[in-house]
Write a structure and sequence with these properties.
about 20% strand; seven-stranded mixed beta sheet; two-stranded antiparallel sheet; binds phenylalanine; about 350 residues; BirA Bifunctional Protein, domain 2; alpha+beta
């Protein structure tokens, strides 16, 4: 083997690579020249028969040839892949599945934005609560059925999955002096059997506004106006609110809150079960006993609290007939709400 023979082989090799068309041809040239049993490795092995003085020159020439060949093959491989994709218009497109915001997340985010405009900030609390925050401080009598093992998920004597977001009221008041103006969205748990309108875990948004007396008295009228504003912002213009007397241990007076049906505008339809109204929340003026429990002087503060169901709002806003659809993560369902 002489250097000029080597040069001839190099030239032929690069010509072949330059003329190769399609990825199969490129691959077979790679095998022929630089593959493990290809020509170039064979020449490198044969170097031992080259006279010692000539070896460095041969070595250099072969290494340079190998590098050139590999580069030329790589460039060919890249361009032939591009060409074949461009040529085959029947290949499926690239699919980037971004997903959509879950309706529950969306209702929570919209609620935070609506109440945010009224000066409410978002407070957080743990889902695993103690008896004091979930029941005692909320003035729940010891015999109340909600504390029963059949209604609440208990983990020992003093630890439970919160049955409502109301314990965050307690945390917010214990950690701050009035004024306190917070909403708390979060997951809650009850031993409900799951059916079309109930689930053992669901979401609530609690609201609390407490201010000082006598400077800033808070009234039921304030509560009503705030919830009416929320109803319009969330459901659209023309939706009004109705208060019905009710009982909660932690508010006095207590009310249940209905929105006028946004679908039939109160005339009666399937969504509102022909009543024209949809129940969405519990609310009321914070009971003085609750203020005592958190260390506020009931003669120096007043406030209201409300709590509504996120699923309930999502179901009526988007016309979802079955609560379970919200948890099944079926893309066919969720993508309709995009
Ligand atoms: N915590 C109550 C419930 O889960 C709702 C509520 C919140 C009522 C705040 C009054 C005030 O039913």
């Amino acid at each position: 083997m002489t250097l000029s023979e080597l040069e001839n082989m190099r030239r032929q090799c690069l010509e072949e690579v330059a003329g190769a068309e399609g990825s199969a041809a490129v691959e077979s040239l790679r095998v022929k020249y630089v593959g493990r049993n290809g020509l170039i490795p064979a020449l490198i092995k044969a170097m031992k028969d080259v006279p010692k003085e000539e070896r460095p020159a041969f070595g250099k020439a072969i290494q340079a040839w190998r590098a050139e060949t590999e580069e030329a093959l790589a460039a060919k491989a890249g361009s032939s892949a591009e060409e074949s994709v461009e040529a085959d218009l029947t290949l499926p497109g690239r699919w980037f599945d971004l997903g959509v915001e879950h309706p529950l997340s969306r209702v929570i985010a919209e609620s935070a934005a609506i109440f945010g405009k009224l000066g409410f900030t978002v407070a957080d609390g743990p889902e695993l609560e103690n008896r004091f925050n979930n029941f005692t401080a909320l003035n729940t009598p010891a015999h109340h059925p909600s504390m029963d093992r059949s209604d609440t998920f208990w983990f020992g004597e003093d630890c439970l999955l919160r049955t409502q977001t109301s314990p965050v009221q307690i945390r917010a008041m214990m950690g701050n002096r009035p004024p306190v103006r917070v909403i708390c969205p979060g997951r809650t748990y009850r031993r409900d059997t799951t059916d079309a309108t109930h689930s053992a875990n669901f979401h609530q948004i609690e609201g609390l506004y407490v201010d000082t007396l006598p400077e800033k008295p808070v009234s039921l009228a304030d509560l009503k106006s705030v919830l009416a504003y929320f109803a319009r912002e969330m459901m659209g213009d023309g939706v009004t609110v109705r208060f019905r007397p009710h009982f909660f241990p932690f508010t006095e007076p207590s009310v249940e809150v209905d929105f006028s049906c946004h679908v039939c505008k109160g005339r009666g339809c399937g969504v509102c079960k022909q009543s024209g109204w949809i129940e969405v929340a519990g609310a009321g003026m914070v009971d003085p006993r609750v203020f005592e429990h958190v260390g506020y002087d009931p003669s120096k503060v007043s406030g209201y609290a409300f709590g509504f169901g996120v699923e309930r709002i999502a179901m009526i806003k988007y016309g979802i007939p079955d609560i379970r659809w919200l948890y099944e993560n079926d893309v066919r369902f969720l993508s309709q709400l995009a």
